[in-house]
Amino acid sequence: MNPSTLLIVDDERTLARSIKLFMAEQGYEAEVAENGDKALELLDRLRPDLVFLDVCLPGQSGMELLGRIKEFDRNIAVIMMTAYGSIEGAVEAVKLGAFDYIKKPVDLDELKLLADRACESARLRQELSYYRERDVRERPYMGIIGKCEAMREIVTRIRQIAALEDSPPILITGETGTGKGLVARTLHRHSRRASRAFIEINCTALPATLMEAELFGYERGAFTDAKESKMGLFEAADGGFLYLDEVGDTELSLQGKLLRAVEERVIRRIGGLRDRRVDVTIVAATHRDLETEVRAGRFRKDLYYRLAVITIDLPPLRERGEDILLLAAHFLETLNAKYGKAVRAIDDRAARTLIEYPWPGNIRELSHVIERAVLWSRGDRLSVDQLSLAPAPPSTPPAPMPTAGLAHGALPQEGIDLAAWERSLVEQALRDSGGNQTKAAKLLRLSRDTLRYRLKKFGLSRS
């Protein structure tokens, strides 16, 4: 192992040389600088692992030099050395990024213990960073499983969003169970804010009054039970991500305050007198069609447009084809390990059943079906009987529209090509709307993003 490199910055030359000799005996490579200018010269050449820095220096102060060192390389550990009269300054330096401080006159054994601890901490941080980067490199979007065109496009969009320095709000739409929470956490994990907080709140879980207190916090005495001040989730997520799950269920009375927080990144605690600025990336998700909710007066138009700056529309599982088997295989591997089973495959008949089943509960339902099958399995292959899939309930037919070869609700004896019928509906809506995609989406009672997905699916996209 290479010896750690140490820079000692102190204008007391006798003390500095004593520290250098002692630390050299302990296996450290050490250099001395008597002021800030000399320290900055050595910084680039030496690239030290650790700096012992006196708080009181001639010219440039130790506090100023600490800032310069952190600008140069935030991973360099800095231990402040201080006389009794400047301990408060040393404590403040720790708040600004110093690893620790030691009082003068210096105890050399204590100094070595601090140096060893600082270098070990730095080594562990480097290892953690290495393994995180390797994990991202080798399994860049672990958990998002799928090869269909829609999922490949979604992964591409996630990569693009994650590369942004500062992302606008992101709205994730899709039916219940399609994996909206997984996409939100993947966005966070691969963003520049991955080391900061990811705070999640379910907007259906609390009434508006409690939701406001959770989101924005409150001051002591703001209401009867407010015996102490409490930070809200916007403040807790400062510098990171705030995930608003099922934002479409937020009560109207709260949506105005939520709009201000999202748009201006400013919140005010309940009972508070001052605004607090927060730096958060907002990710919202909903299974509802928010355009329909806006038209019905249940969701504010301005909040919708602010949240939908970037949208990710997740397809239902029934439209993902072979992805169903990929996901089933993933659950099978995970559940074998969890329950100590040895189910190696899904037989052909069971695989066909999985593909043909409409999956109203989407990926969540698939995971439960595979879990139940694995629990009751006796061999190394899952059969259709072990899947225990009940026949799908009849779906509600769409509103009557003129379609080729299909009368109102009547199905021919030979059956129909559902994909072709759906395509004809999309084509009819485009004709009736004169090619206006927004109007076509309204005719089909779809969001614009869902319509765009179907246009690409059927090769009708002009983009």
Q: Any idea what the radius of gyration is?
A: 30 Å
What is the class of the largest domain in the CATH system?
Alpha Beta
Low-confidence regions: 136-140, 392-409
Please estimate the helix content: 40-55%
CATH topology of the largest domain: Rossmann fold
Characterize the biggest β-sheet.
5 strands, parallel
CATH superfamily membership of the largest domain: P-loop containing nucleotide triphosphate hydrolases
- Order of strands across the biggest sheet? 2-1-3-4-5
CATH architecture title of the largest domain: 3-Layer(aba) Sandwich
Approximate strand percentage: 5-15%
The assigned structural class equals: alpha/beta
Pfam family, one: AAA_lid_14
Domain Sigma-54 factor interaction: 144-375
Domain Response regulatory: 5-119
Organism: Candidatus Methylomirabilis lanthanidiphila
What features would you highlight for this structure?
463 residues, alpha/beta, Rossmann fold, Helicase, Ruva Protein, domain 3, five-stranded parallel sheet, 19 helices, 16 strands, 46% helix, 13% strand, ATP binding, transcription, ATP-binding, Sigma_54_int
